[in-house]
Design a protein that fits this description.
four-stranded mixed β-sheet; 4 strands; 3 helices; globular
């Protein structure tokens, strides 16, 4: 299987390379809910955040890149980042 890549920024997907049918299908579902061409302008709905988490799980990558921080994180940390982004503490 080809290696996949996922980069997150501002709590959403910034860059990706998907090869699996599962990731492509989830990505299409995400896009069907509406999205901005700019990660900075994207405000994911709770449904979109869940889809991003499903994409993270399905992605054939060991680590997920957090672009703003410039670090690779585990899938669990990436999902926490997505779900907590923009939520008041």
């Amino acid at each position: 299987m080809n290696q996949e890549f996922l980069s997150l920024k501002w709590g959403t997907i910034k860059e990706w390379e998907f090869h699996s049918e599962e990731c492509v299908s989830l990505w299409r579902q995400y896009l069907s809910l509406g999205s901005s061409y700019s990660a900075a302008c994207q405000r994911d709905t709770p449904e979109q955040k869940l889809l991003v988490c499903k994409i993270i799980d399905a992605c054939n990558a060991e680590k997920i890149w957090l672009d703003w921080d410039g670090v690779e994180v585990s899938k669990e940390d990436a999902k926490r980042y997505v779900m907590k982004y923009g939520v008041a503490a």
